[in-house]
Specification:
single chain; 167 residues; alpha+beta; two-stranded antiparallel sheet; 5 helices; 5 strands
């Protein structure tokens, strides 16, 4: 991991850490991430999880029922025993592949892993936005962030009292 820096013309320089790509094959190693990246990874997973739960419940971007399927597609899904609701689960791959893909100190990005799923996601996004935070999703992520900050406060106070890392 290499720090990228930039200097302003008034003499102030700042160093920022580059983003880290998250690749998960069989085992994800979080010990290679620094403290704040690990927290953003946890927060990003909470965000992806609450969006997945909303989609499984066939809710739209405002926590209202999602738009109905076309008549032909609803009949096809009903015949296959999958229900006739827009829950993005015809094959199950789209929601399964939605995961945190990039983590930095102040941002976590979730995305789909395969090109086929990204194209399906783009088409579904044109019908009705689905990869967005609803009001309930925002509240859940905010609550998770509050818990992470409360956890962090205890460690920071202990580090400072022991003479540890201070900025």
């Amino acid at each position: 991991m290499v720090a990228a820096g930039r200097c302003f013309d008034f003499g102030k320089c700042e160093v920022t850490m580059a983003s880290v790509r998250v690749w998960q094959k069989k085992q994800l190693r979080l010990d290679l991430l620094n403290f704040t990246q690990r927290q953003m990874f946890m927060l990003g997973n909470v965000g992806a999880g609450v969006v997945k739960n909303r989609l499984r419940a066939a809710q739209g971007p405002e926590d209202t029922p999602a738009k109905p399927l076309t008549k032909k597609y609803a009949i096809l899904k009903s015949r296959l025993g999958l229900g006739n609701r827009r829950n993005l689960s015809f094959t199950g791959n789209m929601l399964q592949n939605l995961a945190v893909r990039t983590v930095s100190e102040n941002r976590a990005k979730a995305g789909l892993s395969t090109r086929k799923d990204r194209l399906k996601a783009w088409a579904n996004q044109k019908i009705q936005p689905w990869l967005v935070f609803s009001p309930k999703n925002k509240a859940a992520v905010t609550e998770a962030a509050r818990r992470i900050f409360d956890e962090m406060k205890k460690r920071l106070a202990l580090q400072r009292s022991l003479g540890g890392r201070q900025r």
